[in-house]
């Protein structure tokens, strides 16, 4: 497919950007053509958002150039980019809720007659725009009266209705339901037919292939490839996003792995999840974890791995499904109930869902166990201190003392304190959601050691990671998730990397599906 | 995977030298200021160093200390209790209403009525998830109205010679009994905060709400208890003020005192964002604010300037907190 007939609207060449010496983008290029939907793909940290922020003028590149219709441009602030015809719709809807649809869409461009707002002309003008995109919205409605999906449509229409040459849609579908997504796609197709160049970011594979004419793939801040959906089918796309793997690390000892599997098969089930469903993000997920087994939830961003953990733990209320911990059902789970049942959950979001920032290492580590070490509400200081000593030693927490504020520690050490919080409870099962996210290599190795030690103690371990290699090296078994559903179950020592990739992309055909997704 | 996430995760570090000094100043400024102003008055204010003046100071400070301690808990959880001034008025009105059942019974009913407002406020905040600022504003107006409605809005004096006269005048070893009570209550709350699960849960709720939920702590019950306690303290404060002036006066008792209480909390070093509770600081700040009033009155300076000075102090305290918060 050669698209030489389509004019190049926006071109980014050799973009380089670093923050405080850390490279976020290393020579990235992007070509947006008129009348095309262009999917920008990459995992967490690939550099998608940095690139978008450069296109929209939030950041200025250290090197490289932007060409708009062939002319070099430089945006020193977001307004420059907007005035050049680049419109962006962010994940958060950015409208004035108590104003009408018409007022929002025309904000700053209201038709006037003799200096006075011409309401009738405004309504007519907006009605025409809405009709053009086949949107059944009353221009007189207040924005706050619309559903979230329709609000998003209004935001998009506002962004594109006037002289938009380039439209950037950063995960526009994440908050929409199926029907709304269809409406959105119609709007996008209409835009495309009008000749706009559309940059589209989504973590849902099916959407990418339904909508996009072209892909650009980034990985670790580098340009990987530009291709079309035909030339880059799902498995190839996922592979391009994840990169190659080095598999010599540990996982190659197949005999040892098989021995271990045979031993594990004798163990009781430590954690059982049956038909777990939450909204559209977790769909009928079932898997078992034996005592002492490390099971990895493998999935791309948005595959539902975090949501699955949260639904098991009761941090979100599942719509359906059963969780059983060492044979005992966990009914109507809440975090408090899950903890007493012996399930611990380490959140992937350390900053917002993990640490108590102003409080000490000691208070942070013992936060979940206070009930067990207090009498009539009075906390036993000696018990508190001995827990902190024991787990600081075991996890090798580097802090000057137990009274130091946790926010003064490095990310890795904060994570160890949190691990201490959950492990001190003596759990039967632990859910570790991306436990090595954002920590340095040394701390990573420590966390891996701790996870293996947990399994040795007979604890059922569920772990997720944004790094596939990490899970392949660490886990006894992988449950593969794609768009909220289990697409397969694999043993790392028995499959090739390509099998894993094809499962990740949602095509459950090539890999061995050992009891995968059965009910 | 990304070093970018890493730097974001670990947070910023402030430069050690300057922030150290500011930290220190932020931590101890209220105690230093209290001592300095006290010494200034001893030296420069005629008639300050008298039993009468000092007792008067403590009689006035006692109800402020009580409501400020309750307020510290509310603010420590990341909330606020704007209803305390009006709850004092309701307590005072209830006293007048039930005086016929005996003075002690009237006091108990008044404090119970106040606590009930706290249960209502706490339920709205904890279970209905309404912003404390909103519930507080609503109750600030509604409870004052309720107090005026049940009392007919007029001042009615309490017959002298009974329990109220004693509360309003009695001293033990030269210290007003109400002040001893307020300090004892503050001490008990400080112990609660330092040593009990309840205090920890309050701090967790203020420090990181989602993490508190994921750690399985009973956030809702904790909030309910805190707003109930705050209102009960306000009820007791209302009794104290009524006893001191020898009358029930729902139209004037407690007016703007929620602001004084908030000022005491902030100047005392408890950050408005929650997650830290300093009861001792609050007590010192409450005494300090009362001492400012006394100073201005005794130095015969226009009282309005005292309000301006307090406003400046609040802003200074918030500024010091801002620099301290940078460390997180």
Overall average residue pLDDT of chain A = 85
Radius of gyration of chain B: 21 Å
Share of residues in helices of chain A: 25-40%
Determine the structural class of chain A based on helices, strands and strand pairing: alpha/beta
CATH fold-level assignment of chain B: ABC transporter involved in vitamin B12 uptake, BtuC
**Tell me about the biggest sheet of chain A?**
6 strands, mixed
Strand content of chain B: under 5%
Describe, in plain words, how this protein is organized in 3D:
- The complex is a heterodimer of chains A (519) and B (328).
- With 519 residues, chain A is of the alpha/beta class.
- Chain A folds into three domains: 8-242, 3-Layer(aba) Sandwich (Rossmann fold); 248-342 and 427-519, 3-Layer(aba) Sandwich (Rossmann fold), CATH 3.40.50; 355-425, no CATH class.
- Chain A is 34% helix and 25% strand.
- In chain A, the strands form six sheets. In chain A, strands 6-9-10-3-11-12 form a six-stranded mixed sheet, with helices on both faces. A six-stranded mixed sheet of chain A has the order 18-21-22-15-23-24, sandwiched between helices.
- The longest helix of chain A has 16 residues, at 178-193.
- Chain A is globular, with a radius of gyration of 26 Å.
- Residues 246-251 and 509-519 of chain A have low confidence and may be disordered.
- Chain B has one domain: Orthogonal Bundle (ABC transporter involved in vitamin B12 uptake, BtuC).
- In chain B, the strands form two sheets. Chain B has a two-stranded antiparallel sheet with strand order 1-4. In chain B, strands 2-3 form a two-stranded antiparallel sheet.
- In chain B, a hairpin with a 2-residue loop joins strand 2 (171-172) and strand 3.
- The A-B interface holds A 19-20, 22, 24, 43-45, 220, 313, 315, 334-340, 345, 347, 350-359, 363, 367-368, 370-371, 374, 377-379, 405, 407-411, 414, 421, 437-440, 466-467 and B 1-11, 13, 195-198, 200-201, 203-204, 207-208, 210-218, 271, 275-276, 327-328.
